[in-house]
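Aim 2 progress update. The chain analyzed this quarter is reproduced below.
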Amino acid sequence: MNDPLARPWWQRALAAVWRFALVAALAAGAWYGWQRWQGSQQKGAEYATEAVFRAPHLIERTTATGTLQALVTVQVGAQVSGRLVQIYKDFNMTVTAGELIAELDPTLYKSQLEQGRANLLNAQAGVQRAAAAHRAADRTLRRVRQLYDKQLATQADLEQAQAQSELTSADVVASKAQVAQAQAQVRVQETNLTYTKIYSPVDGVVLSRNVDVGQTVAASLQAPVLFQIAKDLGKMQVHTAIDEADIGKLTERMPATFTVDAFRGTTFAGEVTQLRLSPQTVQNVVTYDAVVDVANPGARLRPGMTASVTFETAHRRDVLAVPNAALRYRPAADDKIEGLPTAATATHGSELAAEGRAKWRQRRAEAAGLAAGATGSTAPPVAQPMPSKVYVLRGTSVVLVEVTTGVSDGRSTEILSGNLKVGDQLITRRTDKVSATPGSPAAGPGGRGSSMPRRLF
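Predicted structure tokens:
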């Protein structure tokens, strides 16, 4: 039953055909896989590129956020304690210097002033009493001296009369001092009475009113703030927090622009007037205050608004530029790169760096000359040249080119020196495999790229 020869001939033929088909399929699969492997070995790497170009304008900007404030904000307080009986100014009202804006109850201070004046009268009467006593003592002294000369009075009588005259003279001086003290007390009480009327110290606009009629203010330890008055809202300031990495790019009299959420689509202009030296540290982040003066016609801008400020720190015209992606690209380990550094290329690279530094020094001198022409201005900062590398695709070859870079606007970077020309195709990434840039998860040791297997699950 199990003998193959015992089966019919057609079954044996069908089994042979199946075996032949299986062997042929295995052979075809092996041949196809070998061809694919050969093709992948012969096929070159594929890259995405961007061209070197000439930028008509390349602007480097620094951004920060800040808060709008009035040039001068005066806090008006009360120098004496008391109950508010009148408030003459409210929010957003215009005031002039010396205008009465509030009044405290003056009853207590009037009574104190009357008491002080009475004390002054009493002290003045004391001066008259002391003067009269002194005149009487002088008359007694003269009589005793006459008697003593005639030997009708003893030496003790004369000395007692002299002492009494001196004591009454001292009483006159003391009483006059009491008068001066009483007069000073009266002036203090008169001043306290005038302090019950609160006047505006400046011309401006009332930003806030912190009290109401009937409220008692206590000025025992410090003057309570009753009003906040902005001196002039036609001119304002933006106080911006500049990161310590960017503060070196800013100078005084540098132009700045900013926007606020209240007026979308509107850009306001200003000028840096002060770079404050005092640092502010919040969660280990160090910032410095840059003050920007802003004209505010029509008082559209309001104190407290948040401003997004942009500083134009450098402006280059008609310069050779490359995309920043080309500066970030680093080749993979299996890329074939021409122009790798040798002793000769190292010398050439140092020459390129020297050329870039020469251009930088020339621009710094030009900036200083422009600043010298403007009275009171300082030279704008000039970005120092930085050495870098780019990879140029020339035909099927990848060529390493060393360059020195200057100003960057975040998308493109100025080239100060290097063997590049307009139209050169710079590699920005590799398209036939995973390409790594420095700092990316796919970057291998030393920042060189490597291919990563795809996830199977």
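Residues 47-56+318-447 form one domain. The CA atoms of residues 50 and 426 lie 5 Å apart. These observations will guide the mutagenesis experiments scheduled for the next reporting period.
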